[in-house]
Each structure stands twice: as C-alpha cells, then as structure tokens.
Protein: Phosphoglycerate mutase family protein
Organism: Brassica rapa subsp. trilocularis
Amino acid sequence: MLSFQCPSPFFFSGQNRTTTTSCSTAPPRASTELTASPSSLISRRLILLRHAHSSWDHLSLKDHDRPLTKTGQADAAKVAQILSSLGWLPQLILSSDATRTKETLKSMQAQVDGFMEANVHFIPSFYSIAAMDGQTADHLQHIISKYSSPDITTVMCMGHNKGWEEAASMLSGASVKLKTCNAALLLAFGNSWDDAFAMAGPGGWKLEGIVAPDSTICV
C-alpha cells in the first residue's frame, strides 16, 4: 500500500493500487441517487473506520473506557469533513460501545450535521471481536445485515484494530493498514446487503480509498 501526503483533499483511486495512483483536485462526489452497476444492482458503500487517537494517561481506567486525546478529537472532525466532501455520509452507523469510539463519533457529529442524521447503534461485540483472529469480517456482515435495510446504501462501522484492518483486507483482497482515525472506503453491488456480501465474496469489494485526518485519501 502506498501512502501520500497532500496539502488538500485528493482522491486516489484504488483501481490500480499496487502500481499506480491517480489524483484529482476535485474529489468525486457520490450521487444522491441510488447508483447501479451495469447489471442494475444497487451500490453498497461500506466505511470501516478505526477510532481516533485515545489517551493512556489514566492508568486506572479500563481499556474500554479510555477517552480521546485532543488530537483524536481534532482528527475525527477532519475525517468527518473529508467524508462529507466526498459524499460518503452514512445512513447507518454501527459502532463499538467503547468510550473512544463513542467520542470519535461525537466529534464527527459536531463537525458535520449529516452524521447526526444517521441511525446509530452501539454494538458491544465490536469491541471484543476485533481482538479475535479472522472473525471480524464475518461478524460485520452479520451485524450489517441485521440492522440495515435495502434502502440504506452507505454504512459506517466504527471499531478497533486488529480486527478492522483484517476485515478491510479480507473484504477487498488488499493489504489494508488503518492507523487511528483512518477509514477504508469499500464498494460492492447488490439488491440488499446480503446480496452484496454474497456476490462480492472475500476479496471482491473494491477498495475506493483510505481516508486519513491529514486530508489524504490514498492506496
């Protein structure tokens, strides 16, 4: 995976991610209509977001209860703005119930009103599943199918490594690295989320890019 530092938001296509990178000064925005593939299947967009930078200052706190740092709060606001500028606003947000993921979402909602409009569910199992080898992708599929409906085309799942990196890599077939407050943007097609997961299969989701707080989207 290639990493780029740019002074302003650029979109780096994941189409030829192993060898080449293309960028545009005008990042492509998502259509407000339901985008369909040539076979008339509806696009399903999945955002896998790792929580923002959290504090280790309070040693008495359980890991589950660690808050964000000020840097983490600022990073979450930046990522929210980038996702909004690209038109990747989720209609459904599924998040770990850890303090640092909740505070990441709170900072994003404070920055971009669109994140307030999404349906939000806090999923306790997102905290624990991320530590288990190779189980996160299947678990995400199960939870997304449980809480989504056919009219929902963009879902954001917020959680932790190592599971979020593993899931992004398994779904896309790429070697995905997610630093704190990095988001993998994944695309597949299907008339429902179950259809999209079944049709894409492991490695079949297109990695559209990785959003980082420093205003880069890179693969």
About this structure: The CA atoms of residues 104 and 121 lie 14 Å apart. DSSP finds six helices and seven strands in the chain. The helical segments are 70-86, 99-111, 125-129, 136-147, 163-172, 193-200.
